């Protein structure tokens, strides 16, 4: 169980942004390669490191999640592991058979039928016609493509391509290493669930490495994560720690956005007394939470309804606090235009992670006139030891006798 199947040492890959230069460098590198010379170690004009200094190892039974923004170098790393791209520095050691699904079309020939493509795919893996035939029914059933297996792949939808690609990568051979890019995201919900079940089964006997922008899936499936930033490893470690830091860093990129008539303006948002308009505030899981909104109004309605929404990194609202219509009569009487609204939630049962706070105020009279709506008014990082694959982690006490 502790046998390393993937070992990467100081792995690096350069690309060139300029096509002409890239072709010229390619010719020079091929010539150097022919004479047994090592690749050019430094960056030449127009080149950049798509991956640099990547070190990790993965044992049988482990699943590594690759995290990072678009263009961080995740696919390049997977392509190097699959042998599709040659590293410019470092070393890769792989043990056993590799099943991979990197491109959306899974490398299928568009004019061939699904069935013919399975035979081509199996042939590339070195399987005999009989061995492929023996597994064909299982592959077609898993991909749920019984009616389409004799249709040319160019007529497949992207989801159908991925179904067949995943079935080939995971069923044609029993892979020791399974490499998956973000392609599973295009499958429908039930197929994705089936794929993750299959990955969990395979994890008994193989090492899995996959890219996903879905933090719930990563938390559920991966034992450790590697966070890449501009091609370099930013952190590597247990999923719980790396994912929390990754989600926190991705929140910092969002600026607040105000929509609505701005009849009421949000000047300050505080969580447990800490200011954060467009800044992250850190609390421990299970602590009492009090939100304070400091606002100014220009043209006061009689009543307001306040809504505070918490959204996860996928943009889904995971929790919402909604006030009843609150009268502004006392404010009218004092002729002040400053308003402070507080909301106490008690212990917030949200799972550890990072959430964006959206604040909206509606006219309590019409209930649908938006007085203000501030997306990403602040971020809330909930710290805790356990990541959960559910957005809420209900507070509970347990007993055993
Ligand atoms: N063949 C290539 N030639 C030149 N540049 C490339 C090539 N392939 C990738 N790149 C560049 O390398 C960088 C890393 O790309 P990569 O596809 O690995 O990112 P990624 O993390 O997988 O992104 P995403 O999440 O968007 O899929 C990007 O700047 C990309 O433009």
TrEMBL record:
The residue ranges of the ABC transporter domain are: 29-255
- The name under which this protein is listed is Teichoic acids export ATP-binding protein TagH
* Top-level taxon of the source organism: Bacteria
In terms of CDD domains, this protein maps to: ABC_KpsT_Wzt
Alphabetized UniProt keyword annotations: ATP-binding, Nucleotide-binding, Transport
Encoding gene (name): tagH_2
Its cellular-component GO annotations read: membrane
Q: Which GO terms describe its molecular function?
A: ABC-type transporter activity; ATP binding; ATP hydrolysis activity
């Amino acid at each position: 169980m502790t046998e390393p199947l993937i070992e990467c040492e100081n792995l690096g890959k350069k690309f060139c942004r300029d096509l002409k230069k890239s072709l010229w460098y390619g010719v020079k590198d091929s010539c150097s390669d022919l004479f047994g010379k090592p690749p050019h170690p430094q960056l030449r004009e127009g080149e950049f490191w798509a991956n640099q200094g990547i070190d990790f190892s993965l044992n049988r039974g482990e699943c590594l999640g690759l995290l990072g923004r678009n263009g961080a170098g995740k696919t390049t790393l997977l392509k190097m592991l699959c042998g599709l791209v040659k590293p410019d520095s470092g070393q890769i050691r792989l043990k056993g058979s590799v099943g991979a699904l990197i491109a959306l079309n899974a490398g299928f020939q568009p004019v061939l039928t699904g069935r013919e493509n399975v035979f081509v795919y199996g042939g590339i893996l070195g399987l005999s016609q009989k061995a492929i035939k023996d597994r064909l029914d299982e592959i077609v059933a898993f991909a749920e493509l019984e009616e389409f297996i004799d249709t040319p792949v160019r007529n497949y939808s992207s989801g159908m391509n991925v179904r067949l690609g995943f079935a080939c990568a995971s069923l044609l051979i029993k892979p020791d290493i399974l490499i998956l890019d973000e392609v599973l995201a295009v499958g429908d919900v039930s197929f994705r669930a089936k794929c993750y079940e299959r990955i969990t089964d395979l994890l008994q006997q193989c090492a899995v490495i996959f890219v996903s922008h879905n933090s719930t899936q990563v938390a559920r499936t991966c034992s450790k994560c590697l966070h890449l930033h501009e091609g370099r490893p930013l952190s590597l470690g247990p999923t719980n720690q790396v994912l929390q830091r990754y989600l926190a860093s991705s929140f910092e990129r969002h600026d607040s956005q105000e929509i609505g008539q701005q009849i009421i303006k949000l000047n300050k948002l505080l969580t447990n007394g800490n200011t954060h308009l467009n800044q992250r505030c850190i609390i421990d899981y299970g602590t009492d939470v009090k939100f304070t909104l400091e606002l100014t109004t220009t043209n006061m309605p009689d009543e307001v309804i306040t809504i505070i929404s918490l959204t996860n990194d996928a943009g889904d609202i995971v929790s919402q606090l909604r006030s009843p219509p609150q009268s502004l009569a006392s404010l009218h009487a004092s002729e002040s235009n400053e308003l402070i609204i507080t909301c106490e939630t008690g212990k917030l049962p949200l799972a550890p992670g990072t959430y964006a706070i959206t604040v909206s105020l509606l006219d309590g009279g019409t209930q649908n006139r938006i007085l203000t709506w501030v997306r990403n008014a602040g971020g809330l990082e909930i710290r805790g030891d356990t990541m959960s694959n559910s957005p809420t982690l209900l507070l509970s006490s347990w007993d055993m006798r």
